[in-house]
């Protein structure tokens, strides 16, 4: 029964709305779905008759053996497309080649460096060419002993070989674990150990803003640490972990150390590899990949996705949310660039966004995918817009943090370029502030391109809440309505729907690409996602599992049924559109010899949306005597966090204090620290459980610099 009570306050009062463009208004010949009635009919059928709905929409995809039942669910375990046999790589590549599309462009890649001729390097692959490279690398992996179900760690820059490595794993049923190239060697150690991975694919280095990120060196440091602790024998935290092979692609030609016992150059292996590798006929529920993401406690968790459901959901969302139409007539491009639509997602493949919307969903939908190697401001702040113009990009997908940076850099960088090829704009990663949304629409979208604000997570595999470009009015700051197969609601902790105001976002039914688990940690899977909503007392009886999925976000739904995400409700901070557990940053700080205890919270940040504020108590006598000493310690701690996790986790603010506010039971009261970090002078919150009241007063004095 709906209740009126509102669990979370929502403050945004945004009333602007924009209708979908008329046919022809943005250059697209047509919209795949162009009426609210058509959307509603498909949506309702997707929930009421999943077998019928998914049979129709998955008919374009290839199944070695057709599935028999769409879904089977006993919380928390969902299975999709039962009995089906298929393969992601086959559907991204072979299927198009079989259908006589082998000569169409699949991937367009642009490198970061500007060559002596003043142009960047551009490489294109047709489906046939990509298939050949993927087959070769699949054979390389097999030669290295990789079998179905083995985890292959991929730690590379944004080069085509990254996509090739992923697809090669998918082809033979190996499970890839891509680690974002911005993470440190410690992050590699943690993930390799957790996944029990024995092969790492990397690059000598990656280009980023004109500099080389030493990827191979980071891998070496990780492998050396693994070997050192592996030798420590029983009792070692790291178990007996051995990396057998490191395959490295030479991209930046920086100096590397070569280890004869394990290092192999990508090209040396590829020249010897066979050009054909048969495709493994995988079960729908076989593992496709794992991808690590942060939680509020403990080390990052390896989110498990399986073959059939992930394929179907990323394909469907790519097609309908971005309105991908293979062969749609568009302005002519110079050779060797393809005609038709060209989709560009600016994310890194190290995040789920890149997995789903640079590689799998887009290739499956048969529209060429543009992949860019480097930074948005190299060699200048107009790089993205120069690229949109050069490649005549039709769909552009980025993050609010990037949009805020573009705004700050100024619209003159945009106005230098012809962006008239753009048809649909997308945003993902965090709530977008209406001001940034309006700027995006006006300056990038010429005031006509529809914006799709897609809410989803690493765990959901693909879009969950969004508008469809030819269907829905858009509202700045709202992510819209549920996609096909998604039953979303705002609930209280009993699982009752809340009709007015904010509450917890709940997904009440499984969808095809729902995470299947946390790698090697069943308890964490259950406790993180399936113990929030006590629907009909489900948590109190039996196995204590909720029938609803808990994403960890607060949200509210307006009278039109549009969702507005209010942000995380747990101790996870969303920095530049990516989740970081406060606990990870805290452990990194505490591992520095000067720090005794640390508490980390999010704080408002102009570009990143949320920045990181750290409160540290120090060892006796470690408190610096003067401001210069404090700055030195801050710099040292910042560098330490970057080394432990990666630059993305660097605190924006570090304060030293002699005590942290705690409850009587010793829990750090982060909600109070959030106010302190945000500069709230008068704390109006409930402080009755605070153990030592003077701590708060002293914290306010622990000014930032
Ligand atoms: C969290 C997931 C999905 C790929 C990028 C991040 C926040 C994501 C939106 C959006 C408001 C959003 C949520 C979510 N988030 N998209 N359109 N509007 N918030 O993936 O690292 O798994 O983070 O990002 O808080 O739970 P992720």
Annotation keywords:
disordered N terminus, eight-stranded mixed beta sheet, Rossmann fold, binds 5'-O-[(S)-butoxy(hydroxy)phosphoryl]adenosine, alpha/beta, GMP Synthetase, Chain A, domain 3, 19 helices, 705 residues, seven-stranded mixed beta sheet
Shape, principal axes of CA atoms: globular
Mean pLDDT comes to 93
- What is the SS-derived class? alpha/beta
Strand content: 15-25%
Bound molecules: 5'-O-[(S)-butoxy(hydroxy)phosphoryl]adenosine
Q: What's the CATH architecture of the domain at 146-301?
A: 3-Layer(aba) Sandwich
Quote the distance from N terminus to C terminus: 51 Å
Proportion in helices: 25-40%
Radius of gyration from the alpha-carbon trace, in angstroms = 25 Å
**Might you state the CATH topology name of the domain at 146-301?**
Rossmann fold
- Number of helices, counting only DSSP H or I runs of 4 residues or more: 19
Report the biggest beta sheet as strand number plus sense, adding barrel if it closes. Answer: 8 strands, mixed
Question: What's the CATH first level of the domain at 146-301?
Answer: Alpha Beta
Query: What is the total tally of β strands?
Result: 32
- Across the major sheet, the strand order is 12-11-8-6-7-14-15-25
Uncertain runs are: 1-6, 231-236
Secondary-structure blueprint of this entry?
Blueprint: H1 36-48, H2 50-57, E1 69-74, E2 77-82, E3 85-86, H3 88-98, E4 105-114, E5 120-126, H4 127-143, E6 151-155, H5 160-172, E7 175-178, H6 185-195, E8 199-203, E9 206-208, E10 211-213, H7 215-230, E11 245-249, E12 263-265, H8 266-271, E13 282-283, E14 287-293, E15 301-306, H9 307-321, E16 343-345, H10 352-364, E17 369-372, H11 383-391, E18 395-398, H12 400-409, H13 412-415, E19 424-427, H14 434-444, E20 451-453, E21 465-466, E22 481-482, E23 488-491, E24 502-507, E25 517-518, H15 522-529, E26 553-557, E27 563-568, E28 572-575, E29 578-581, H16 582-590, E30 595-605, E31 609-618, H17 627-644, E32 653-656, H18 670-677, H19 693-701
Parallel strand pairs: 4-17, 6-7, 6-8, 7-14, 8-11, 11-12, 16-17, 16-18, 18-19, 19-20, 31-32
Antiparallel strand pairs: 1-2, 3-13, 4-5, 9-10, 14-15, 15-25, 21-22, 23-24, 24-26, 26-27, 28-29, 30-31
Helix pairs in contact: 1-2, 3-4, 3-10, 4-5, 6-7, 9-10, 12-14
The site of 5'-O-[(S)-butoxy(hydroxy)phosphoryl]adenosine has 24 residues, from helix 10, strand 27 and strand 29.
């Amino acid at each position: 029964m709906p209740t009126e009570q509102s669990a979370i306050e929502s403050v945004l009062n945004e009333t602007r709305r924009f209708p979908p463009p008329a046919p022809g208004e943005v250059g697209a010949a047509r919209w795949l779905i162009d009426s609210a009635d058509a959307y509603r009919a498909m949506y309702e059928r997707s929930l009421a008759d999943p077998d019928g709905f998914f049979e129709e929409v998955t008919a374009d995809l290839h199944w070695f053996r057709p599935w028999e039942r769409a879904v089977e669910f006993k919380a928390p375990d969902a299975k999709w497309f039962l009995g089906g046999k298929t393969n992601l790589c086959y559907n991204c590549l072979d299927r198009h080649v079989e259908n006589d599309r082998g000569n169409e462009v699949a991937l367009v890649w642009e490198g970061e460096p500007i060559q002596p001729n003043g142009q960047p390097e551009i490489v294109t692959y047709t489906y046939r060419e990509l298939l050949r490279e993927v087959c070769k690398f699949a054979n390389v992996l097999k030669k290295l002993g990789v079998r179905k179900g083995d985890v292959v760690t991929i730690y590379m820059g944004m080069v085509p070989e990254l996509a090739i490595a992923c697809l090669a794993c998918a082809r033979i049923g190996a499970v890839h674990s891509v680690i974002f190239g911005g993470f440190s060697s410690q992050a590699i150690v943690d993930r390799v150990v957790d996944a029990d991975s024995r092969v790492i694919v990397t690059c000598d280095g990656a280009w980023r803003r004109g500099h080389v990120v030493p990827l191979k060196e980071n891998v070496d440091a990780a492998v050396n640490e693994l070997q050192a602790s592996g030798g420590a024998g029983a009792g070692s935290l790291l178990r007996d972990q051995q990396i057998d092979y490191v395959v490295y692609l030479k991209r930046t030609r920086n100096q590397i150390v070569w280890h004869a016992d394990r290092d192999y150059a990508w090209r040396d292996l590829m020249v010897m590899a066979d050009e054909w590798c048969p495709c493994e006929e995988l079960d729908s529920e076989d593992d496709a990949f794992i991808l690590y993401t942060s939680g509020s406690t403990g080390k990052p968790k390896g989110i498990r996705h399986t073959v059939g459901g992930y394929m179907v959901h990323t394909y469907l969302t790519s097609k309908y949310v971005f309105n991908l139409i293979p062969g749609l007539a568009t302005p002519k491009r110079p050779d060797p660039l393809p005609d038709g639509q060209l989709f560009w997602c600016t994310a890194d493949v190290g995040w789920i966004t890149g997995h789903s919307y640079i590689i799998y969903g887009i290739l499956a939908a048969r529209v060429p995918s543009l992949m860019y190697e480097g930074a948005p401001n190299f060699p200048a702040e107009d790089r993205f817009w120069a690229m949109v113009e050069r490649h005549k990009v039709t769909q552009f997908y980025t993050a609010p943090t990037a949009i805020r940076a573009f705004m700050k850099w100024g619209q003159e960088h945009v106005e230098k370029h012809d962006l008239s090829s753009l048809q649909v704009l997308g945003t993902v990663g965090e709530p977008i502030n209406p001001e940034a949304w309006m700027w995006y629409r006006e300056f990038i979208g010429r005031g006509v391109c529809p914006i799709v604000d897609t809410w989803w997570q690493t765990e959901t595999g693909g879009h969950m809440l969004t508008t469809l470009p030819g269907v829905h009015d858009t509202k700045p700051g709202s992510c819209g309505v549920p996609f096909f197969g998604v039953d979303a609601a705002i609930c209280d902790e009993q699982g009752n729907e809340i009709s007015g105001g904010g509450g917890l976002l709940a997904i009440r039914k499984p969808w095809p690409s729902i995470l299947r688990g946390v790698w090697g940690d069943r308890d964490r899977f259950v406790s993180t996602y399936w113990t929030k909503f006590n629907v009909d007392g489900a948590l109190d009886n039996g196995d204590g599992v909720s029938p609803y999925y808990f994403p960890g976000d607060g949200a509210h739904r307006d009278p039109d049924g549009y969702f507005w995400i209010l942000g995380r409700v747990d101790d996870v901070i969303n920095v530049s559109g990516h989740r970081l557990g406060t606990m990870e940053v805290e452990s990194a700080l505490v591992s520095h010899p000067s720090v005794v205890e640390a508490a980390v919270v999010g704080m408002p940040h102009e570009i990143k949306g949320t920045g990181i504020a750290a409160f540290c108590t120090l060892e006796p006598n470690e408190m610096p005597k003067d401001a210069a000493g404090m700055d030195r310690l801050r710099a040292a701690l910042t560098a330490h966090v970057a080394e432990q996790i990666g630059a993305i986790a660097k605190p924006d603010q570090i304060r030293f204090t002699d005590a942290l506010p705690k409850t009587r039971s010793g829990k750090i009261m982060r909600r109070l620290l959030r106010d302190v970090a945000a500069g709230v002078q008068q704390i109006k919150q409930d402080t009755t459980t605070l153990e030592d009241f003077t701590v708060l007063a002293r914290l306010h004095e622990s000014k930032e610099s």
